[in-house]
Amino acid sequence: MDVEIVLTPFELRPDMPEEGYQKSELEEAGHSDRVRDHLLGLAEREGFPMVIPPFLPKTHLALTLVEMARDQGEESHLKMHHAVFGAYFEHNRDIGSRDVLLGLASDHGMDTKQVVTAWDEDGYAERLHQFRHLAMHLGLESTPAALICNELLIGSRPYAVFRDAVDRCLVTPESVEEELADQDEESSR
Fold first, then answer.
1. CB–CB of 129/96 below 8 Å?
2. Tens digits of per-residue pLDDT, 102-133?
3. Which residue, 115, 145, 120, 110, is CA-closest to 131?
4. Spatial distance between the Cα atoms of 62 and 95, rounded to a whole number of angstroms
5. How far apart, in Å, are the Cα atoms of 92 and each of 38, 57, 95, 125, 134?
6. 71: closest CA among 112, 122, 127, 117?
7. Which of 42, 10, 12, 40 lies closest to 26, judged by CA?
8. DSSP run (H or E) holding 133
9. Distance CA 152, CA 169 (A)
10. The pLDDT of residue 28
């Protein structure tokens, strides 16, 4: 059975001001020292030079940019998704800034005039609204989150948690029958 991963945007704070927030302005926005240290340690072990920026950007423009890349194909979508996350979590850049995002768009061969038009006309607003509606329906109030089959995982989790959820997802009556048949075949040898 193939497992399909679908990245879906979730604008956590759609009513955020355009300039975003400094984390010091929001009680619930910061991580505890323990969580921050865990995330930074995990990133270091995985070879990802991570920073935790002191600000929360308004992500609407970034999400629109990534959705535009999705429309260009899966490869473009994944590259832009990684570029936006890298800009924020690796390079401490404000992904709410038009200039930062236009630089990323240009670096990835996107037509920056089309990007600006999409932002100004908000042509992706309905798509982003539908994704937000889905998140609200699932009861999401924080990120990251992953829905694996019928199991909703919220928050940063170790890789093993996701692997185990995928393994549980792959168990079907047919896969159990195949496994039992394989075991019977091996034991009869």
1. no
2. 999 999 999 999 999 999 998 899 999 999 99
3. 145
4. 6
5. 18, 11, 9, 26, 29
6. 127
7. 12
8. helix 125-138
9. 12
10. 59
Please give the single-letter amino acid code of residue 153. Answer: L
Q: Taking a C-beta distance cutoff of 8 angstroms, is the pair 87, 49 a contact?
A: no
Q: Strand pairing partners for 154?
A: 145
Q: Which candidate, 26, 25, 59, places its Cα nearest to that of 144?
A: 59
β-pairing verdict for 145-148 and 55-56: unpaired
- Residue 149 three-state SS: coil
3-state secondary structure of 167: helix
User: What contacts 169, CB < 8 A, 6 or more positions away?
Assistant: 3, 148, 149, 151
Contact, 8 vs 131, CB < 8 A? yes
Superfamily (CATH H level) for 21-157: Glutaredoxin (3.40.30.10)
> Is 0.70 surpassed by the pTM of this model?
yes
CB atoms near residue 187 (< 10 Å): 7
Domain ranges of the chain: 21-157, 159-189
Amino acid at residue number 73: G
